[in-house]
Design brief:
The protein is built from 4 helices and no strands. By secondary structure, it is mostly helical.
Amino acid sequence: MKINLNHNLNSNNAINPLGTDNNKGGKTVLNFANSNIGKNGVTNTVEQKKEAARKQAMKLMSDAFEGEQKADGMMDSQRDRFKELQNEYGNLKKQLKDLKEKGLPEEATDDDVKAYNESLKEYTLQADAALTEMRSIDQSLRSTKIERLKTDPIGDAFDEAENIMEAAREEIIGSLTSDAKEYIDEKQKKKPKRSKKRKKNSKKGSKRQRKREKNRKNSPKPSSNQQTI
């Protein structure tokens, strides 16, 4: 399974979250040259968030894989033990069969009979114990298989990792969008001040112009009899 956790968080929408087009004519051009957007501080923060999300996602995947490998290892150990018990049980049954077929000689003493019966009993107990453990292991393996079919830890971890990366991407875009809006708001706040200053200067200029016109009207006109020097 190939897992892509390196989401592209440096898309155009992340760098230019307001969706303005800086390349095509007739569109609004936003100049962030004097803002903190795209500078090392913000870039480092974005990279840190990306790295933290990536590590969290990879930890989830790693834990899921380790859990599955551990479960596989336990089942393999049970299978190995089952094979050992099979061999042990087979040997015990063979010894019991041989012992019964051989039987006791006619000249066997009471002690021989006692030892013979104890051997039969011991072999039978060992064979029964091996068979009981084999049945327990078989039941455990079957139950584990059924339970593991009901869940998908790797798939769940993959989905959760995708959600982590997507949440990080949205957080970064939101942060950059907020920074961009703050920068634009600051620019917009400065524009009215400059407009008022220009309007004030315009009013002063109009007042001086009216004053000059008034002075010109009130100044005495030279008479036709006056000689020009």
